[in-house]
Each structure stands twice: as structure tokens, then as C-alpha cells.
UniProtKB/TrEMBL annotation:
Protein family per UniProt: Belongs to the eukaryotic PMM family.
Subunit structure: Homodimer.
Family matches, as SUPFAM superfamilies: HAD-like
This protein's GO CC annotations: cytosol
Entry protein name: Phosphomannomutase
Length: 247
């Protein structure tokens, strides 16, 4: 797969797109016309493939060299499914149910400005926990993010889960505006590197917005195998790419 010496590895949400929105067509064309001739391009996200397609286009697996949904637990190389791992098979149903039952009990005991639906989303490689419910509107997302920045709903819930399940083997990371991910230790975004580390890239540049400790880009940003770039938004990502490749 490594037809070039450099791999540009991008987080999706907040890095290539505004939160849960489609990529700007001009930025998409910039990646295809200016960056792809110079480097191979990979996308990694905590979301499943369907959500990445919603933001990056239905044909995303055919336009980028690698697509790593769910932190790389699902991996596409050259448009072909190359790897799949399941949290259910790895952890076991009994352990998962105890964990999910506590999550639902905890959420039923807290009061927020509003709640909607889909509080636990079961994905192939992780559980996505959303205190407000994933079926909220964009405005409700924005409002919850502001509320959470003040009241630390997600951080406090993670503390409670760590206390209740101290030996669970789970790790937790906050990403996006409204939720956090739960996954086996080692199944953060660094998991995706196993699919590219033997491709003999001279440099692997990772671009992410949630790179601070506790954010879901932190581990990949700090990994010794990558050159990390902290970005503020898609416009900042574009500016950093222009500087990196002297465009």
C-alpha cells in the first residue's frame, strides 16, 4: 500500500469536519488534489463506517488509502475490508451486561437540562456512552457541550465507572460534543497503527483536535510512531498541511 514515503493520518470529527457535519467540498478537493499526490491518506475515527460516510461521503473507502472506523477495529485498505475485531467476543456478554446495566442506572439518577434517546450505542469495538442521548438536535448538542464544560458530566461519569469497575480492563476517552467511548485497554486510536507500521513509511503525521489528556486523540498524538499535530478545526488542519508540504 505504501506508494509514498509519508502517511497523513487524520481524525475526522473536529479535524476534517465540524462536529458531526459533512466535510466542506473545497477542503475535500484540497485533500484529493494537493495532498494525495504527495502522501498517502488515512482516516481514523471512533465512529462506525456509516457515520464516517455521512461526514466524508458514501464512497470514502475508495478515495482514501486507509479507513479505520472504530479506532481501527475495522480496517479498510485500498477499499477492501482487511481487519475486524469485536468487543463482544473479546470481553464477553456477562461482563458487558453488568457494565451497561450500571451505565443505565447511573444515567437514570442524574438530571440534565434535557435528555433524548440512544444513551448507549453498541459498536463493533467500543461502547459509546451519551448522557444527553445521541438523538438530540445540533443545537441541543451545542448546548450540552457548553453545559458539560461547566458541570463536567462526562468526566464525573467516567470517575464513577472507574470506581465501580476498577479491574474492568476498560479505558475511557472523551470525544466530540456529547459522548465518551469505552473500550478495552490498548483499543484506543493507536490500535490502527498496526495496520500501517510495517508499510515502511518514513513519516506518519497524525492530525487531531482532541489531543489533550483524556481526549480520544491523545494516545495517537503522543505515540512515538507518529508526528503529532494538534489542530483547532478543519481550517487549522488545512493551514498546517499547507505549511507542512510548503504549498
Amino acid at each position: 500500500m505504501a506508494s509514498k514515503e509519508i502517511l497523513c493520518l487524520f481524525d475526522v470529527d473536529g479535524t476534517l469536519t465540524k462536529s458531526r457535519q459533512e466535510i466542506d467540498v473545497n477542503f475535500k478537493n484540497f485533500l484529493m488534489e494537493k495532498i494525495k499526490p504527495l502522501a498517502n491518506i488515512a482516516l481514523v475515527g471512533g465512529s462506525d463506517l456509516t457515520k464516517i460516510q455521512e461526514q466524508m461521503g458514501d464512497d470514502v473507502i475508495h478515495h482514501y488509502d486507509y479507513i479505520f472506523p472504530e479506532n481501527g477495529l475495522i480496517a479498510y485498505k485500498g477499499g477492501v475490508l482487511a481487519h475486524k475485531q469485536s468487543i463482544q467476543e473479546f470481553v464477553g456478554e456477562e461482563k458487558l451486561q453488568k457494565f451497561i446495566n450500571f451505565v443505565l442506572h447511573y444515567l437514570s439518577s442524574i438530571t440534565l437540562p434535557l435528555k433524548r434517546g440512544t444513551f448507549v450505542e453498541f459498536r463493533t469495538g467500543l461502547l459509546n456512552i451519551c448522557p444527553i442521548g445521541r438523538s438530540c438536535s445540533q443545537k441541543e448538542r451545542d448546548d450540552f457541550e457548553k453545559y458539560d464544560n461547566i458541570h463536567h458530566i462526562r468526566k464525573d461519569m467516567i470517575k464513577a465507572l472507574r470506581a465501580k469497575f476498577p479491574n474492568s480492563g476498560f479505558n475511557y476517552s472523551i470525544g466530540g460534543q456529547i459522548s465518551f467511548d469505552v473500550f478495552p485497554i490498548g483499543w484506543d486510536k493507536t490500535y490502527c497503527l498496526q495496520h500501517v507500521e510495517n508499510e515502511r513509511y518514513r513519516e506518519i503525521h497524525f492530525f487531531g483536535d482532541k489531543t489533550d489528556l483524556g481526549g480520544n486523540d491523545h494516545e495517537l498524538f503522543k505515540d512515538s510512531r507518529t508526528i503529532g499535530h494538534k489542530v483547532l478545526n478543519p481550517d487549522d488542519t488545512k493551514e498546517q498541511l499547507i505549511k507542512l508540504f510548503s504549498l
